[in-house]
Each structure stands twice: as C-alpha cells, then as structure tokens.
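Weekly sync notes, structure subgroup
Attendees: PM, AL, DS (notes)

Item 1: joint prediction request from the bench team. They want all two components modeled as one assembly rather than separately. Inputs as received:
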Amino acid sequence: MAYDLTVNGQTHHIEADEGTPLLWVLREQLGLTGTKFGCGIAACGACTVHLDGAASRSCSVPIESVGTQHVTTIEGLAAPGTRHAVQQAWIDAQIPQCGYCQSGMIMAVSALLTGTAQPSDADIDGQLTNICRCGTYPRVRRAIHAIAAGAAGSASHG
Amino acid sequence: MGKLGTWTRRGFLTVGGVIGGGLALGVAFAPNRLAIKGDPRKLNTWLKITPDNRVTVLVPHCDMGQGSQTALAMMLAEELDADWNLVHAEPAPAMPAYATEYLVHGFALGFMPAWLLPRTVDDVSLLIADMVGLQLTGGSASVRMTGEAGMRVAGAGARAMLIQAAAARWGVDPSSCSAALSSVRHVTSGRSLTYGALADDASRLSPPTAPALKPYTQWQLVGTSPPRADIPEKTNGTAKFGIDTVLPDMLYATVTACPVFGGKLVSVDTAAAAKMPGVHSVVRLDDAVAVIADGYWRALQAVRALQPVWDFGGHGNVTSESITADQRALLASGDGSADVKRGDTKAALAAAARVISAEYYVPYLAHATMEPPNATVRIADGKCEIWTGVQDPLNTRSVAATAAGLAAENVTVHNFRVGGGFGRKVPASFDFISQAVQVAKIASPRPVKFIWSREEDIAHDYYRPTALIRFQGGLNAQGAPVAWRAHYTGTAGENASQIPYGIDNFLISSSKFSNHVRTGPWRSVDHSQHGFFSESFVDELALAAGKDPFAFRRDLLATGSRYRAVLEMAAAKSGWGGTLPPGSGRGIALTEAFGSIVAEVAEVTVSPAGAVRVNRVTAVVDCGDLVHPDTATAQIEGGIMFGLAAALYGEITIDKGAVKQDNFSTYKVAKMVDTPEIAVFFIESHAPRGGIGEVGVPPIAPAIANAVHAASGVRVRTLPIRSIAMPPAEPPSEHASAQ
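Output from the run, pasted for the record:
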C-alpha cells in the first residue's frame, strides 16, 4: 500500500504493508533512527513520537492509521541548531545514562508539558510510563519540575 | 604507517610518535605476556597528544551510560595537568592491544568479580595468559583498575616527558619547569610551550619507569563533575547504537529459538513463510529458526507464521516448583563446601541460648536491556564485519570468527555504545552474535541487521541465577550473636556471601546447583542475592535479640572502621529512629561489593491491603576517592532503581521447561510511579577506589524488605515482594538449643 506521511514537516511517499508499525517505517524507510525499538507492544515507550502533538507509541501505530496526522520524531522536536526546553533540561540535569530510552522519554515529557504545564508528581507518575532500565527516573522527575518552574535553561543554539 | 614502526617499550610505559607529529603513550602491564607481543605496532596506546595541542584518550571500555569514558579521561588529564577543554575521549578499537589488561591483574590481586570465579584456574599465570584477550566492561572495573593503573600512569608519564622535552629545548633543568593547562613553563624566565609544540620532541624520549602520581590533596579536575561528553547526542536522536546501523543493500532478520534451553530444532515447514512478502530466506539453525526479509516487521511476521517442531532435550517437564524442590533437596543432601569458616560454628550453635532459623529464596531475573540483542553482519570476500554494541568487542570477534568459520584476523568488530548492558552483553552470553553471523552467511554478500524481538530477549536471556539459602543464627543470653551458619545453592564464594560483622563463629557453605536454564552475570552478580539474604537475616537476629536493627549492626562493627562510618552516616542522614506514620517503616542494609561499602535506608508504606510503596531511599557510599561525583551519584541512583525493580517485581518463572514471561507486560520493571526520593551521600575515605556501577544494587532489596517488616510485621523471605499478604505470616522458627 502507498501512503503519504508527514514527518517533521516533510511529506514522504512511502510503500508499506497494511499493519506495518509506524516505528519501522520511520527507522527503515526514512532513516530516522532516533526513535527506538524497545518492546513492540507499546509497553516501554522507547518508540514515542508525537502525532499531531500527542505522545504515541509508534511500535503499535499501524501505518494506515496515521492518515494526515503530523508525525514529529526526536529529530524534529526542535528547529535545526536549537534545543527544545526538555532537551536542554536533560543536559542540565545530566539525565541520560545509556541513552537508549531517552528519545522516547523526551518525546513523552514534551507532550506531557504541552498538555500540563505544571504537572504534579501524580500527573508525572500517571502520564509518564516510559521504561528506563538505567533508572534515570529521579532526575527525570526533578528536571520536569525544573522546566515547569522555569528554572531550566531556555532553548539555546547547540 | 609513519612512525608506528618505531614503537619501543621500556618498563611500564610505552612510547611512540603519531602520524603527522606528536606523542603517543601506552601502558604495558605485563610486557612478557602482553598481547602486543609479536607485533610492536599493536601498542596499547591510551594517550595521544597532537601538534594542535589536543589530547585524545583512547578508552578501552565501552559506553553503557556509566560515564567511565569521561571519568577515565579525567584521571589521565589530572596527572597530565592537561586543559580539560582540550581533552576528548575516544573508544579504543577492538584489538588485542587494547585489552583491559589491568583487569586481568585485578583478578590476580583478588578483585576478581565473583561471576568469573568458575573460570578461575589455580595457577594465576595461566589465568592471566588465558584472559589476556579480555577487553571487557564489567566488574565495576573501569575506574578502579584501568583508571588507577593505566590512565593515571600514562598521564603522569607523559607530563614528565613533556617537561623533559621543554627543559632540553631551553637548556634548563627539568626541576625548574612546571606544567599546567596543557603547557610547560620555565618558572624563572616565564617562557612557556604548549604540549602540542613539545609532543614530537617528547616522543623521542624514554618514558619514566615509575612516574610519580599526584596525592589526592593536589587534584583539581578529579573530584569535580564536568558535563559528560556523550549526553547532548543522547537527547536529540543522533547518538548511534548498534541497532541504528544502516548499510547499503541491507536485509533484516529476526529469530525464534527453542523455548526450552538445550533443545533442538527437529523440523520446520518453511514453505508458507518463504512465500510471504519481502522474505529473502528462512534459515534453520541448530536450535532456532530465523527469517531474513527486506524489513524487520516482515521478518517478524514470517517468523511468527512458522510452526517449528522442537526436541526439548528431556527438559520439557521442568517447572519453577520442581527447580525449587531440587534446590531444597540439594541443600538437604549434605553440608556443601565451606566458603568462609571461622571458629566452631556447630559447637557455638549447640551452646547458644537461642537459635533462629530461616530459609530465603530469590528467583531467576532477566536483564531486559532497553536495546534488545542485535548485530548487523556482512560476510563477503572471506571477511566478516560486525556492527553491534557489546561489553566485550574483542571476544565478539572470536565468537563471530567461530560462527563464520574464519580466522579472527578476518573479522572486524565495530562496537557502538551499549543500550544497556547490566551483564547481558558479555562473551558468555553471545548467542545472538553467533546467530547473527550464521544468518548473514546465508545472505552473503548482502549485510543483514539481525534483531531479537523483546519476546525473544525475555525468554532467552542468561538469567541471574535463582538461589535458596538456609540460615541458622545463634544468640547468647544477652542477645549477642555468637554463630552464623549459612548454606546456599550457587557459587557465590567468599566475596559475596561474606558479612562484615564481628561474629566469632562463622560457617558459610555452598552447593553448586545447575540445570538446563542458562545463567549469567547480572548487575552486581552474586551480591544481588546475598545482599538480600544476609542483610535480611541480620535484621531477623537483631529483632529476635530485641535490639534496634541499626544499633545491632553498629555494635558488631569495629569502631573507626569504614563499615561503621558508612552505616552511622546512613542512619543519621535518613533520620533513623524518627517517627513515621502508621503503616510505614524504615529498613537498613549494609553491603560491600567490588571494593565499595554501601549502606541504604529505605522508607516504605504498606497499605492495609498489602501494597508496598517505597517512599524514600538514603544511600551512603564509601568507594574511596570520587572521580566524577555526579556520575557516581547517577550510578547509585540507577543501581537503586535496578535493585528496587527486582525486589518489588522481578521474576522469571519456568513452566514446561520454558520461560513463562515474554515482554514488559509479564516481566514487570520499575517505572516513574515506583520511584522514591533518593538521596546519595559519599564518604571519601581515601581508601583504594572501589567500583560504582553495580554497588548500589545489593543493599536495596534487604533495605526494602526490612522496612516492610518494620511497617507491617511481615518478614519477606522470598523475592519479589509484589504485595504483602496481610495479616502477618508465621514468625521465624525458634527452638531452644540442644544443651
């Protein structure tokens, strides 16, 4: 099947079997390898992207269901040469360890903050269900509160 | 090869030039046995200074997020008096010359990680010879071994040579020169030259045999926390892992292996799968079937359509229950072999006023690294190239060479940062490398990216071993412990099963248990089991003696000892003894692993329904001197989360010989919602540096379990905790001594 897919502001014409998860189209056809494969069942969030701004686990989004929704991946979260506030906060707080889950974590957190600018701990616990086996969670929580408090650095040229 | 042919080796330091000018310095720990023998060009260069005044540190350990790339470069830069802004770290290539030689010496000196003990031979020389090919990241060894004996020595040696070169240039005595910020300065005249300008001269000098290292009082860079160089690219998707490899004309593959370990593939009808869209071929392996296709998803669909017939090798009836029964029978069958023995434990138990007995159990655990096992392999023109992220690229080469039927020199490994290791990505567990190479042979000359599904990963790990232990503890009439008897299944040895407490009579013995379920090292290895066992049972003794668990432990530790300082600080920082709301409690635990001493206090709440929530964890760590305090803190935080996940949820069970869990839906790990407040403190005792990557793990399970008891009265003797069955179960069995 043929699909027109809008990713990071660009429209791509792709061919894929119906049922192919968006994750594999991004990684294998569009070369956007920042979005990671973790579990294949939407349980870990390593593959999180935005569909029209909402966090979605791309390993479980069939390509045919994307339609005209705009896909944003980690590569497109900030304008080229800049950092999103969440990315800057991740550097400030020195969060990533192995880093494999962090693309998905950052995409999930940026969507969370778009919907809830001042999340409580309960909001964070309820909405941020990504898995990080290195255990960066304490720093993730602190960084989210720091962004919410406006304490994190603003977008800067990187 | 430019000046590479002029390498020489003198004493510990080895020196040479760099193409285009400059200084290269390496460290040879055992010149007679070093892997560079036979080819002097294969120098284990760890330091390069180029004319642009930049310092490159070649780090022979991989990046798993543990921060040792930065820490090792800092240790070298400190001794070199380099300008940190001009220093960068690079991974060393997968060549024998970069084998983590000092790790081998660490074994010989007694720091050997317990998980390698089965590989020990009596003759230390033989051991070293056998392991000379090691290029391993594990055993919390990077800083304390490679850093201490490699990076620091190389940095100090280079500094001395650069000063000597400058002094010769100026015709002055070296002692009249000083070094700072990557320059040498003649103190009286004020003349100065950069390291870059001196590097070529220095490369013609003989390296000092034993350069002086700075005392800790003079460190300026070490002990600070400059930003880790690897972090920015891990926030924007540009950090490349092995799974991100893209090659021209690449195919994709995935696999399903016999669900029962040790089984074989009998037959498989491949016709239907072979006709599925995009399928290149179906590959029969000895104990698995793989599909190669033009995309991972298509390969996975085809693998799932297969209905292989397996021979379960006689293990198809094994269950977790039968394994536990076998372990129990093993312990009942004899006394085991003594790992630690002091005094006369049998007599002391017989004479004790009270004897407390208990049995503890921990299950198999999976690593569940976020990056599933994968490797991209191209076999063409008699060569094999591999792109992957593993904890030991050098042995990847030999595993791949065997699978490919090629000599090791025809195999090239491109190692990437590791998306979670925790012990999964070590040579003994390289089944996925071997599979990937066998699959790539079929597609040759096209490259194949071979990826395990998460289901394959959870069900075909090399698991943290299950273990069963039986304790007897003797208390005298005053409630002081007089005897400690433990007998467990496994091979933890003295290191992990030992406790630091002053008890006169000790007997710890083990009975080796093995079955068809494959096992391997898991973050902190045997300490993950024995920390829970010993520190829970100590708590039982304390409470049986009617004493506060902290005070009971403290009184068994020598005044002025590192153990006691760590324990006391943990109590102070956690507010030990302060009141908590009903249903809440604190638990304390103290462990020593990989040369570091760690105490953790957990504060938990147990709901009336038995749900356990960990609210707060206080950790105190004595790992000697810190290199990068923020990274050390992050490693302790991560170790606590890793151990907390296992304590609360982690369990691999066996049914019909196979692992029952298959993904994060059934193998539960910790998430944000499980995360306590964590406060980490360090004691810089200036003792020899200990490890940091694994040492946060062992105390957390017993700290939580002891806190659960304080909160609910229920003693946890089996992990995972999941939730507590209220009301309390039977207290530990007690009986009068046989006097």
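Discussion: Chain A has two domains: 2-75, 85-148.
Action: AL to compare against the crosslinking data before next sync.
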